[in-house]
C-alpha cells in the first residue's frame, strides 16, 4: 500500500466514521451538531473517494498477498485491522456516496438493496471506521513505514 492510499484510507475512515456516527455523537454532545453538519456536506465526495480507494486496495491486496501474509505474521492485530480497514472503506464509502455511485448503472437495484441493509448498521460501522483509521495512523506514526 502506497503512503497516499494509506493516508486516504486512514484519514478517510476517521472522517467517514464520524459522519456515519453523527446521530450518536449529536445525542451525546448537541453542541457538535453544527460542525458535523458542515462535515456531512462533503459526505458524497468522501464516500466516493473511500469507495474507489478501497476497491483499488482490495485489488492490491489480492496481487500482493505475500506482503499481507508477512504483515499478519509480523503484527497479527495490525494485519487484521488493515484488512478490516479496507473492507470498511468500501462499506462506508458505499453508505456515504448515496446514489452517486449507482446513478450510471443499468441495474442498480442490487447495490441499492445492499446499501439499505448496511445503512441499518451505519453507527456501528462508523465507530469501527474511527477505530481502524485511528489505529492505523498510530501504527504508522509509532512503528514503521508500511
- Global outline: globular
Secondary-structure element series = HHHHHHHH
Number of helices: 8
Report the C-alpha radius of gyration, rounded: 16 Å
What count of structural domains? Answer: 1
Sketch the major β-sheet.
Answer: none
Ends distance: 7 Å
Helix content: over 70%
How are the SSEs ordered, and which strands pair?
Layout: H1 3-20, H2 22-28, H3 33-40, H4 43-63, H5 65-74, H6 76-97, H7 109-119, H8 122-142
Helix pairs in contact: 1-4, 1-6, 1-8, 4-6, 5-6, 6-8
What does this structure look like?
There is one protein chain. Helix 1 runs antiparallel to helix 8 (122-142) and helix 6 crosses helix 8. The protein has helices at residues 3-20, 22-28, 33-40, 43-63, 65-74, 76-97, 109-119, 122-142. The protein has one domain (3-142). The chain is globular, with a radius of gyration of 16 Å. With 146 residues, it is an all-alpha fold. Helices cover 81% and strands 0% of the residues. It contains eight helices and no strands. The model has no long low-confidence stretch (mean pLDDT 87).
Short description:
This protein is mostly helical and 146 residues long. It has one domain (3-142).
Question: Which features does this protein show?
Answer:
single chain; 146 residues; mainly alpha; globular
Amino acid at each position: 500500500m502506497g503512503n497516499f492510499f494509506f493516508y486516504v484510507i486512514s484519514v478517510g475512515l476517521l472522517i467517514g466514521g464520524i459522519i456515519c456516527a453523527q446521530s450518536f455523537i449529536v445525542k451525546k454532545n448537541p453542541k457538535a451538531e453544527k460542525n458535523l453538519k458542515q462535515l456531512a456536506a462533503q459526505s458524497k465526495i468522501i464516500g466516493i473517494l473511500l469507495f474507489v480507494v478501497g476497491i483499488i486496495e482490495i485489488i492490491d491486496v489480492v496481487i500482493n498477498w505475500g506482503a499481507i501474509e508477512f504483515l499478519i505474521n509480523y503484527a497479527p492485530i495490525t494485519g487484521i485491522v488493515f484488512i478490516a480497514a479496507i473492507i470498511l472503506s468500501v462499506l462506508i464509502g458505499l453508505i456515504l456516496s448515496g446514489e452517486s455511485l449507482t446513478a450510471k448503472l443499468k441495474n442498480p437495484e442490487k447495490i441499492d438493496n445492499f446499501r439499505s441493509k448496511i445503512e441499518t448498521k451505519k453507527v456501528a460501522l462508523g465507530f469501527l471506521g474511527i477505530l481502524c483509521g485511528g489505529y492505523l495512523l498510530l501504527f504508522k506514526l509509532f512503528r514503521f513505514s508500511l
